[in-house]
């Protein structure tokens, strides 16, 4: 994959504020977690415009809606047997791999790999890398990675 976003390991906490950097170390997104009954993450671009939102939806199992630029990408939720089931119906994408370890691949509706998320140990601190080929998929890949993190670290 030609493009990468990096998030320092502290992102595993939903609360507070953290930055998402590109390959050059520039902040391209800021993520703010808001502790509330409805649990949510708000994503801002480098101009401080809100470009993404991930928030809980009332459900028996943990379930989150993912929005990009005010439009729903669908939901991510635990289904039967506590196995994450990803339903990004607007994109037609699905993910496979180790969601709890944040090591997974994302595929389009034709099963072509769009991107991947993995832990990179060669930095001074632990980083998670979001790799993607098409620059148009950058924000979608970030939202999917954050949504999976929220879902798998639900307390």
Number of strands: 12
Number of helices: 1
String of helices and strands: EEEEEEEEEEEEH
Widest sheet, order of strands: 2-3-4-5-6-7-8
Q: Unreliable segments (pLDDT under 50, ≥5 consecutive)? A: none
N- and C-termini, Cα separation: 33 Å
Query: What is the structural class?
Result: mainly beta
Tell me about the biggest sheet?
7 strands, antiparallel
- Which percent band covers the strand fraction? over 45%
Average of per-residue pLDDT values:
83
Q: What shape does the CA trace take?
A: globular
Taking all Cα atoms into account, the compactness measure Rg is: 14 Å
Considering DSSP H and I runs of 4 or more, what fraction of the residues is helical? under 10%
């Amino acid at each position: 994959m030609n493009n990468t976003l990096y998030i320092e390991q502290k992102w595993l906490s939903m609360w507070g504020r953290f930055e998402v950097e590109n390959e050059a170390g520039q902040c391209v997104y800021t993520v703010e977690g808001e502790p509330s009954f409805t649990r949510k993450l708000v994503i801002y671009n480098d101009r401080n415009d809100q470009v993404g939102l991930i928030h809980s939806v009332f459900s028996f199992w943990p379930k989150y809606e993912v929005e990009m630029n005010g439009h729903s990408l669908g939901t991510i939720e635990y289904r039967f047997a506590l196995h994450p089931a990803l339903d990004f119906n607007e994109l037609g994408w699905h993910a496979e791999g180790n969601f709890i370890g944040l090591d997974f691949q994302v595929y389009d509706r034709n099963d072509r790999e769009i991107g991947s998320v993995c832990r990179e140990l060669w930095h001074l601190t632990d980083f998670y890398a979001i790799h993607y080929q098409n620059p148009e998929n950058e924000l979608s890949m970030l939202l999917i990675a954050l949504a999976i993190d929220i879902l798998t670290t639900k307390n």
